[in-house]
Fold this sequence. Notes:
Helix content: 25-40%
CATH class of the largest domain: Alpha Beta
Strand content: 15-25%
Mean pLDDT: 91
Order of helices and strands: HHHHHHEHEEEEHEHEEEEEHEEH
Number of strands: 13
Structural class: alpha+beta
Low-confidence stretches: none
Amino acid sequence: MNKSALKKMSTLFETAQYCHSILPFWRPGYLKVLSRACHICRTGRFEPYEAFRLGLFQPNFPDSQIKNYTSRKNTTKLQKLLNPVSWEPLLRDKGLFYRYLMALKLPMPKLYAIFFQKVPGWSPQGSMPAGRAEWEQFLAKIPAEEFVIKPCRSAFGTAVKIFQRTADGFTDTDKKIFNVTNIYNMMRTEQRFDSFVIQERLRNHPEIRRLSPSEFLQTVRVTTFIDRNGCCRILFAFFKLIGSNNITDNFGDGRNGNMLAAVRTDNGRLEPAVITAPDGKGAIYFQKHPFTNIEFESFEIPFWADIIALAKKTAVQFLPLRTIGWDIAVTSEGPKIIEGNMWWNPLNRRQWKNIIEADLPYNL
């Protein structure tokens, strides 16, 4: 059996399992649910877990609304028509990304250093720490009470560490005690990643904390698209809220406690927030923040006009990449760029896809 046939069988089996969780296979109507689910995946190019998580397999989900949902495969196809894949490292590697932002003098977290396991590092002061002794000396003199260490090429918040200076050295978010030797060893022996950025820890704007009281950074995703006339448009925006004990605002599959709230791009006001249902069967919406009881639709993101202006200004500087999802922190000093995402995930129920397709000279 060839790989294509095996893939089809695997997809059918996975779809059947998800449908069984909605309606047991021995119950009348199961085959109808399965047939509809297979049709949705085939015509919309959805992976089974993706369509199930969006709630599309639910028998009461209106067929007329499915056209408003876009699969990750179709999104990636559009992105590949707009972005040269060879430029991916500029966004994917945080070391390259932050150095480029620095050269453009764009607002970002202060970059203290870049650490490499096999070659000397780099700092804005021009030093190139190398070896245990030099790095330990450098870490001891970082000019901040708090700092963040991120792998240059990680995603989804993997292996992000936040350190706070104490009388005994440093503590992380789990209150574990570190000294400079421990921190150096952590970076030097990490098996998954071989380079790290060491940067300023940013704090949320007071209004952001009033809405969502996590002490960790919660960012706005603003997705830009530059048309063939060089005009930059905002496709959509959403606010990423930390709803549990997570230290990052990554949404993941929507079941980690974090939430997403779409932002009205004309005025910065939020729409109801969403999570994935604990059983994975579709979305749950919140009209109010579950911790503070503040209505989402009454809340306006601070510095909204500045955020939009920053996203558009930055997007033009990253041409020939034409569509990027920017993660922007809202601080008391204004917006600051945290990340750029070439392979951004679709925000379903938004008609951004039609804007892009109208501008492409290709048959999709």
